Every structure is written in C-alpha cells, then in structure tokens.
Amino acid sequence: MKELIWLTCLLLWLCGGHTLYEENPFLSIKQSKRTQLSLDTCFCELQGPVEECCCDVETVNRLNQLQVYPLANYLTGMSYFRFFKVDLLKECPFWQDDSSKCVMKGCHVEPCSEEEVPVFLKATDASISKPATPQQGHCSSVPASCSCDEDTLDEQNELGAIDSTISSKQQEEFDKWKEFDDSEVNFCELDDEQSRSLSYVDLSLNPERYTGYAGPSADRIWKAIYRENCFLPEEDITRHSIIDYSRMQGMCLEKRAFYRLISGMHTSITIHLTAHYLQSEPSATNPTFGPNFEEFNKRFDPQRTASQGPLWLKNLYFTYLLVLRAITKGEPLWESESFFTGNNLDEKIIKETIRQIVRAAKSCPSLFDETQMFNDDSSIKLKSQFKQHFRNISRIMDCVGCEKCRLWGKVQVRGIGTALKILFNDVQRLKLHRTEIVSLFNALGRFSSSINQLNRFRSNVQADQTGEDV
Ligand SMILES: Cc1cc2nc3c(=O)[nH]c(=O)nc-3n(C[C@H](O)[C@H](O)[C@H](O)COP(=O)(O)OP(=O)(O)OC[C@H]3O[C@@H](n4cnc5c(N)ncnc54)[C@H](O)[C@@H]3O)c2cc1C
Question: Which DSSP symbol is given to 91?
Fold first, then answer.
C-alpha cells in the first residue's frame, strides 16, 4: 500500500508540469542580432500541422513538455533502460573502416566491467545460455539470489535427461526458419546474441553530445543513408547536393515517410550536439559542454540549407509522433511484459510510468495513422523494400567511425525499427527482445529531449527579442 501511495505521488509530481530540466544555461548567452534574426526564420515554419500526422506542433510541444518528456526522462534513467547491450566492434559490412574518427577523447565508449553489470542482467543472460531447469527455484528462474548445489543439479539433469542433440543440418534448418521469421517482422538487424564482442554500456555515462565527428567519414554515412537507402527522385540522388523535399511530393506516402523518419532522427542528433556543444579545448582533461546558438543556426538556417532547415526541424515532430504512436499501439505488450529487474517496486514503477505515457499520448485524438500505409496489394513489394532499406541503415550504423555516435545511432535506429515492427505487425502475436524495448523507449527519450531543447532555443530567441528573461 505504502509503495503504491509513493508511486502515485511520484507520477503526479512528474506529470504536474514539473519538468526535470537542468538549470537553463541559455540565460547567460548573448547573441548577435544577425543570429537572432536567422533563428527566427528557422522557427517561423515550425508551427501548425505536422504533415501526414494528425497533430500540430503546438499540441506536441504542450504534450511533450508537460507529460512525455518528464516521464520518458525518468524512465530512461532507470536501470532497466540504462544498460544497453551492444556490439560496438562489429565490422562495417559495406566498406573498409576508415580512420577519420572523433577529435575528442570523449567520443570513446567505456563498456561496463563485469562488476558494473547489474545482477538482474547477468541473471537473464545466464538463463539464455544455460539449459532451462524444470523445477521452480533453480538458477535460471531466480539466479540473482541463487545458491544452487551444482552436484544436485547435475544428478537431476542426468536422471530426467532428454536427448536434445541437434544435428548440424537440423540446426542449419532452424537458423533458416529463424531468419525467415525475423525477416517477416523485423525492420532492423539486431546484434548477434552469440557474438563475443557484445558488451553492456551504461547510457547515462555516455550522453549524446558534441564529439567532433565530422568530415568525409560522417559525410559518407549520411550519403549512404540518404542517397542509397532513402527512396528519392532520380535527380536528387545524383544531381543536387541538398535533397529538396518538395520534389518528393509526387511520391507515395511510404517513401516520403521513410525519408522524414531518417531526417527527423538526423535533426535530433544535430540538436543534441548543438545543445551540448564543446565549450573548452578538445584536449582539455575535463571538457565542458553547453548550447551553441551559432552552430544550431548554421545547421538549420533556411538560407544555408536551401530552405530545408525548417522542414528538417518539423521532421523531428514526425519521427516523435510515429514512435509515440507505436508505444501507444504496443500497450498490450507493456501490460504483459515483466520488465524484470529483480526489484518488485522498480518493475511496478516502470509499468506505471509507461501507462502514464500511453495515457498522455491517447489524450491526443490521433498521433499518426499507420493504416494509411501499406494498405493495398501493390504494397507487399513496397513493404519488403522499405524493410530492406531500413535494415541496411541499421547495418550502416556499424560503419560510424566514432564510438559514441555509433552507440546512439544504434539505439535510435533500433528504436525506430522497433516502432515500425509494432506498427506494421499484429501486436497480439509479437514478442520483443529486451534490447528492442530499451531502444524504443530511449529513442522516445532522445526525440522528446530534442523537442524540449528546440523549444528552449526558441524561447530564448523570443525572450532576447522582447528583452524579457526566460
Ligand atoms: C549515426 C551518426 C551519429 C552521429 N552522432 C553524433 C554525435 O553524437 N555527436 C556529434 O558531435 N556528431 C555526431 N555525428 C556527426 C554529425 O551528425 C555531423 O555529421 C557532423 O556534425 C558534421 O555536420 P555537417 O554540418 O557537415 O552536416 P551533417 O549533419 O553531416 O549533414 C550532412 C548533410 O545532410 C543534410 N542534412 C543535414 N541535416 C539533415 C536533416 N535533419 N534531414 C535531412 N538532411 C539533412 C545536409 O545536406 C547536410 O549537408 C553523427 C553522425 C552519424 C552518421
């Protein structure tokens, strides 16, 4: 009872308009008039309906600031969502890895040591590799506090042994079935669970921010994503240096949605790196980070982006709404998921926080209508191409030459891939891996935090223009 009262208070506090903002670092920044004006133009199109969605920018801003952002921020800080299992050493499958990495030491990711991995994760991993034991109370079901007698277990295994030998030919067949099943529902390629280079990373210790990753290596990744894997008009693939979205208006909804999803994620990455930009020397022992208006402006100013910058900002709202819609549609999945952490209260809080996110999202009449996509016979081929292209993008993440960017790239692409998996499959028949759940909610956390940052940039500009304090 006490637990429930505590939990209710916490959630009421989270949703009561209390945002978990850090101190507003923008207050101390004074901008030149030129930057302010450009920022204004950057934002002037950021209003009204989010095309192809059923919400407008203003509604999303309110929903996000008062409810989704504080809840998602809280959720992703919990240990179930903080520890991400990832293979950061996987070779790039498309080209030889180059050496143009980050300029900063800080772009390296330190995986968790054995001791740092929470017991509940070691436990669930152990149960994957160990044969399941039939009686309750054995290691595989409660390994965290297990004190099993190995000899007793051996004896029991021998007596009740079943022949589980599988020939290599049969194993090959099983692998093929699994591959087929995966390709039917998955939009992303997940890391191989058997890989020796998988490790756990604590996302909270590796925040997404400026790393200095740029130049030919980063360019090559974005080019491979947009030019080779988005569905673009021929002339945009070959002739123009900046993709003009207006030339895509004649294309079908699915192809435009694909581009907007990726562009929205790209916008989110850019907002985070400009909101947490390097403010000291790259070689400093303890580098400092903070918002950089000039950099933000440079990257979204319509004059410098052939008028595309404001559209890129709006695409962030599109990506956010699609992910939020998937989380809403996935409600039955969250209700039946245990969110095992070995701590009963934590598990209850996770469930209740997700319920609150879903409830908040449902207060919007409609976020994104996935039934408008892939809804006729000719869509079968299109859906398969869509999946193939998205899978390629998930594989391109292994070519990102900066570990921290690769880490967050993987989280976000996998999160969007999970959202697509939920939207375009029957949720009653879906079972998600922990890594997909973790990626999905962290992706929501990233996009939600970007919208939050964007509005802080905007209110600072408005306050500067009217001479008010923010
Ligand atoms: C997966 C990934 C993750 C990254 N993570 C980080 C990170 O955490 N920290 C960090 O400092 N750097 C990160 N980077 C690098 C960063 O994204 C930029 O590539 C880098 O800052 C150089 O920026 P740029 O101005 O050259 O343009 P880029 O951002 O590299 O953009 C390349 C081109 O894409 C187009 N474009 C730009 N934005 C959009 C958009 N939103 N929608 C559509 N088209 C667009 C423009 O034509 C632009 O010239 C990451 C790169 C990748 C590929």
Answer: P
The answer to whether 186 and 94 have CB atoms below 8 angstroms apart is no
Burial class (CB in 10 A: 0-12, 13-18, 19+), 108: middle
Q: Per-residue pLDDT averaged across 327-338, rounded? A: 97
Ligand 1 atom at minimum distance from 312 CA: 41
Q: Where in the sequence is the domain holding 206, given as residue range(s)?
A: 60-115+178-466
Considering the chain, what is the average pLDDT of its residues?
81
Please check whether residue 412 lies inside any domain of the structure.
yes
Candidate from 9-18, 225-234, 269-278, 359-368 with smallest mean pLDDT: 9-18
104, 208, 213, 451: residue to mutate for ligand 1 pocket, most atoms within 8 A of CB: 213
Nearest to 57 by CA among 461, 458, 464: 458
Tokens of 37: 């004006």
Beta bridge partners of 147: none
Token pair of 302 as six digits: 């319509």
pLDDT tens digits along 173-191: 656 555 556 667 899 888 8
Ligand 1 neighbour 208 (Cβ under 6 A):
yes
Q: Is 221 in the pocket of ligand 1 (CB under 6 A)?
A: yes
For ligand 1, the distance from its centroid to the CA atom of residue 372, given in whole angstroms, is: 30
Q: What's the burial of 457, exposed, middle or buried (CB within 10 Å: 0-12/13-18/19+)?
A: buried
Does residue 4 fall inside a structural domain? no
In a domain, 155, yes or no: no
303 pLDDT higher than 70: yes
Total tally of structural domains belonging to the chain:
1
Burial state string for 407-445 with b = 16 or more CB within 10 A and e = fewer than 16? bbbbbbbbbbbbbbbbbbeeeeeeebebbbbbbbbbbbb
| Whether 462 contacts 438, CB under 8 Å | no
CA-299 nearest atom, ligand 1: 25
Within a domain: residue 139?
no
Q: Is 386 in the pocket of ligand 1 (CB under 6 A)?
A: no
Among 14-23, 62-71, 458-467, name the one with the lowest average pLDDT. 14-23
Give the Cα separation of 196 and 343 in Å (integer). 29
